[in-house]
Amino acid sequence: MVKIPEQFSLLYSAEDIDRRVTELADEIGQAYAGKMLHLVGVLKGAAVFLSDLARKLPIPTTFDFLAVASYGDATESSGVVRMIKDLDDPVESRDVMIIEDIVDTGLTLKYIEELLRSRKVASLTKCAFLDRPDRRKVKVTMDYVGFTIPNRYVVGYGLDFEQKWRHLPAIYAIN
Ligand code: IMP
Question: What pTM does this model have?
Fold first, then answer.
Protein backbone atom coordinates (compact mmCIF):
# COMPACT_ATOMS: atom_id res chain seq x y z
CA MET A 1 0.00 0.00 0.00
CA VAL A 2 1.31 3.45 -0.93
CA LYS A 3 2.15 5.79 1.95
CA ILE A 4 -0.39 8.62 2.16
CA PRO A 5 1.11 12.06 2.97
CA GLU A 6 0.04 13.73 6.23
CA GLN A 7 -1.54 16.66 4.39
CA PHE A 8 -4.08 14.32 2.75
CA SER A 9 -7.42 13.76 4.45
CA LEU A 10 -9.71 10.95 3.35
CA LEU A 11 -12.98 12.11 1.75
CA TYR A 12 -14.26 8.87 0.17
CA SER A 13 -12.87 5.41 0.77
CA ALA A 14 -12.59 2.76 -1.94
CA GLU A 15 -15.70 1.12 -0.42
CA ASP A 16 -17.68 4.42 -0.55
CA ILE A 17 -16.65 4.80 -4.19
CA ASP A 18 -17.54 1.23 -5.10
CA ARG A 19 -20.99 1.58 -3.55
CA ARG A 20 -21.70 4.88 -5.30
CA VAL A 21 -20.45 3.72 -8.71
CA THR A 22 -22.71 0.65 -8.41
CA GLU A 23 -25.70 2.92 -7.70
CA LEU A 24 -24.86 5.16 -10.65
CA ALA A 25 -24.48 2.16 -12.96
CA ASP A 26 -27.91 0.83 -11.92
CA GLU A 27 -29.52 4.22 -12.47
CA ILE A 28 -27.88 4.68 -15.88
CA GLY A 29 -28.70 1.09 -16.83
CA GLN A 30 -32.39 1.73 -16.21
CA ALA A 31 -32.39 4.99 -18.15
CA TYR A 32 -30.70 3.36 -21.16
CA ALA A 33 -32.38 -0.06 -21.05
CA GLY A 34 -32.43 -1.60 -24.53
CA LYS A 35 -29.93 0.90 -25.90
CA MET A 36 -26.24 0.91 -26.73
CA LEU A 37 -24.43 3.67 -24.85
CA HIS A 38 -21.25 5.30 -26.16
CA LEU A 39 -19.08 6.54 -23.29
CA VAL A 40 -16.72 9.42 -24.02
CA GLY A 41 -14.08 9.71 -21.31
CA VAL A 42 -12.02 12.82 -20.74
CA LEU A 43 -8.34 11.90 -20.31
CA LYS A 44 -6.59 11.38 -18.12
CA GLY A 45 -8.69 11.91 -15.00
CA ALA A 46 -11.84 10.04 -16.05
CA ALA A 47 -10.07 6.83 -17.14
CA VAL A 48 -10.34 5.16 -13.72
CA PHE A 49 -14.00 6.09 -13.17
CA LEU A 50 -14.97 5.11 -16.72
CA SER A 51 -13.40 1.69 -16.44
CA ASP A 52 -15.18 0.97 -13.16
CA LEU A 53 -18.51 2.34 -14.37
CA ALA A 54 -18.41 0.48 -17.71
CA ARG A 55 -17.80 -2.83 -15.94
CA LYS A 56 -20.79 -2.31 -13.66
CA LEU A 57 -23.25 -1.08 -16.31
CA PRO A 58 -25.93 -3.68 -17.10
CA ILE A 59 -26.14 -2.52 -20.75
CA PRO A 60 -23.76 -2.83 -23.72
CA THR A 61 -21.40 0.09 -24.13
CA THR A 62 -18.65 1.25 -26.42
CA PHE A 63 -16.05 3.79 -25.40
CA ASP A 64 -13.70 6.39 -26.72
CA PHE A 65 -11.49 9.07 -25.16
CA LEU A 66 -10.51 12.63 -25.84
CA ALA A 67 -8.03 14.89 -24.12
CA VAL A 68 -8.25 18.62 -23.60
CA ALA A 69 -6.12 21.08 -21.67
CA SER A 70 -6.78 24.45 -20.20
CA TYR A 71 -4.00 26.98 -20.06
CA GLY A 72 -2.97 27.81 -16.50
CA ASP A 73 -1.10 26.25 -13.61
CA ALA A 74 -1.82 22.98 -11.83
CA THR A 75 -4.73 24.15 -9.70
CA GLU A 76 -6.04 27.28 -11.46
CA SER A 77 -7.52 27.09 -14.94
CA SER A 78 -7.17 30.12 -17.22
CA GLY A 79 -10.48 29.47 -18.91
CA VAL A 80 -9.12 28.72 -22.38
CA VAL A 81 -9.71 25.09 -23.32
CA ARG A 82 -8.01 23.42 -26.28
CA MET A 83 -8.12 19.94 -27.80
CA ILE A 84 -5.05 17.73 -27.38
CA LYS A 85 -6.45 14.42 -28.60
CA ASP A 86 -9.67 14.06 -30.58
CA LEU A 87 -11.99 11.05 -30.51
CA ASP A 88 -11.05 8.07 -32.69
CA ASP A 89 -14.61 7.29 -33.81
CA PRO A 90 -17.55 9.34 -35.16
CA VAL A 91 -20.34 10.11 -32.67
CA GLU A 92 -23.04 11.11 -35.17
CA SER A 93 -26.45 9.52 -34.41
CA ARG A 94 -25.16 7.76 -31.28
CA ASP A 95 -26.37 7.93 -27.69
CA VAL A 96 -23.36 9.52 -26.04
CA MET A 97 -22.49 10.10 -22.39
CA ILE A 98 -19.55 12.33 -21.44
CA ILE A 99 -17.60 10.89 -18.50
CA GLU A 100 -15.67 13.42 -16.41
CA ASP A 101 -13.60 12.99 -13.27
CA ILE A 102 -14.66 16.33 -11.73
CA VAL A 103 -16.62 19.36 -12.82
CA ASP A 104 -14.94 22.43 -11.37
CA THR A 105 -15.33 25.71 -13.32
CA GLY A 106 -17.40 23.80 -15.90
CA LEU A 107 -15.31 25.18 -18.78
CA THR A 108 -13.99 21.79 -19.92
CA LEU A 109 -17.39 20.18 -19.91
CA LYS A 110 -18.99 23.11 -21.72
CA TYR A 111 -16.33 22.93 -24.45
CA ILE A 112 -16.77 19.16 -24.92
CA GLU A 113 -20.55 19.37 -24.83
CA GLU A 114 -20.61 22.01 -27.58
CA LEU A 115 -18.11 20.02 -29.64
CA LEU A 116 -20.13 16.80 -29.46
CA ARG A 117 -23.46 18.53 -30.13
CA SER A 118 -21.95 20.05 -33.28
CA ARG A 119 -21.23 16.47 -34.42
CA LYS A 120 -24.96 15.64 -34.37
CA VAL A 121 -25.19 13.02 -31.64
CA ALA A 122 -28.58 11.29 -31.23
CA SER A 123 -28.56 12.16 -27.52
CA LEU A 124 -26.05 13.54 -25.04
CA THR A 125 -25.84 13.20 -21.27
CA LYS A 126 -23.12 14.13 -18.79
CA CYS A 127 -21.81 12.10 -15.89
CA ALA A 128 -19.12 13.26 -13.46
CA PHE A 129 -17.67 11.32 -10.58
CA LEU A 130 -17.28 14.55 -8.55
CA ASP A 131 -18.98 17.93 -8.72
CA ARG A 132 -17.60 21.06 -7.01
CA PRO A 133 -20.31 23.65 -7.72
CA ASP A 134 -18.73 26.43 -5.60
CA ARG A 135 -16.14 27.20 -8.27
CA ARG A 136 -18.42 27.19 -11.31
CA LYS A 137 -17.70 29.88 -13.93
CA VAL A 138 -20.18 28.71 -16.57
CA LYS A 139 -23.56 27.04 -16.18
CA VAL A 140 -23.58 23.32 -16.94
CA THR A 141 -26.37 20.93 -16.08
CA MET A 142 -25.34 17.47 -14.88
CA ASP A 143 -27.31 14.28 -15.47
CA TYR A 144 -25.35 11.99 -13.13
CA VAL A 145 -22.99 12.90 -10.29
CA GLY A 146 -21.16 10.57 -7.92
CA PHE A 147 -20.47 12.99 -5.07
CA THR A 148 -20.86 16.75 -4.63
CA ILE A 149 -17.80 18.04 -2.80
CA PRO A 150 -16.85 21.21 -0.89
CA ASN A 151 -14.30 23.69 -2.23
CA ARG A 152 -11.13 21.65 -1.65
CA TYR A 153 -8.54 20.28 -4.08
CA VAL A 154 -8.79 16.50 -4.31
CA VAL A 155 -6.61 13.64 -5.59
CA GLY A 156 -6.97 9.92 -6.15
CA TYR A 157 -9.26 7.68 -8.22
CA GLY A 158 -7.88 9.21 -11.44
CA LEU A 159 -7.44 12.76 -10.14
CA ASP A 160 -3.93 14.18 -9.92
CA PHE A 161 -1.80 16.86 -8.41
CA GLU A 162 1.07 17.54 -10.82
CA GLN A 163 0.36 14.16 -12.50
CA LYS A 164 0.77 12.25 -9.24
CA TRP A 165 -1.69 10.30 -7.04
CA ARG A 166 -4.06 9.22 -9.83
CA HIS A 167 -3.52 5.60 -8.79
CA LEU A 168 -4.90 5.98 -5.26
CA PRO A 169 -8.09 3.91 -4.85
CA ALA A 170 -9.71 6.52 -2.55
CA ILE A 171 -10.36 10.28 -2.77
CA TYR A 172 -8.31 12.60 -0.54
CA ALA A 173 -8.52 16.35 0.02
CA ILE A 174 -5.14 18.11 0.18
CA ASN A 175 -4.86 20.38 3.21
P1 IMP B 1 -13.00 22.56 -15.14
O2 IMP B 1 -12.81 22.80 -16.61
O3 IMP B 1 -12.53 23.73 -14.34
O4 IMP B 1 -14.43 22.16 -14.79
O5 IMP B 1 -12.06 21.40 -14.66
C6 IMP B 1 -11.61 20.48 -15.51
C7 IMP B 1 -10.50 19.60 -15.06
O8 IMP B 1 -9.63 20.16 -14.09
C9 IMP B 1 -11.03 18.32 -14.46
O10 IMP B 1 -11.48 17.42 -15.46
C11 IMP B 1 -9.79 17.84 -13.75
O12 IMP B 1 -8.97 17.13 -14.62
C13 IMP B 1 -9.10 19.13 -13.29
N14 IMP B 1 -9.41 19.38 -11.88
C15 IMP B 1 -10.28 20.27 -11.38
N16 IMP B 1 -10.31 20.22 -10.03
C17 IMP B 1 -9.46 19.23 -9.67
C18 IMP B 1 -9.07 18.66 -8.39
O19 IMP B 1 -9.54 19.03 -7.30
N20 IMP B 1 -8.15 17.67 -8.45
C21 IMP B 1 -7.62 17.20 -9.61
N22 IMP B 1 -7.97 17.69 -10.81
C23 IMP B 1 -8.88 18.70 -10.85
Answer: 0.95
Please determine, looking at this structure, whether the domain spanning 20-151 carries the CATH number 3.40.50.2020. Answer: yes
CB atoms within 10 A of CB 88: 8
Positions of E strands within 20-119: 37-43, 61-72, 77-85, 95-103
pLDDT for position 79 = 73
Tell me the CA–centroid distance for residue 82 and ligand 1, in Å.
14
Burial class (CB in 10 A: 0-12, 13-18, 19+), 161: middle
Span 54-83, mean pLDDT?
A: 85
Task: Give the residue among 101, 153, 97 at the shortest CA–CA distance from 129.
Answer: 101
- In the chain the beta strands, taken as DSSP E runs, fall at 8-12, 37-43, 61-72, 77-85, 95-103, 123-131, 144-148, 154-155, 171-174
Alpha helices (H) in 40-81, listed in sequence order: 47-56
Please give the C-alpha separations between residue 109 and each of 59, 78, 131, in angstroms, as whole numbers. 24, 15, 12
* Residue ranges covered by each domain of the chain: 20-151
- Ligand 1 centroid to residue 126 C-alpha, Å: 15
User: 7, 101, 137, 147: which to mutate for ligand 1, most atoms within 8 A of CB?
Assistant: 101
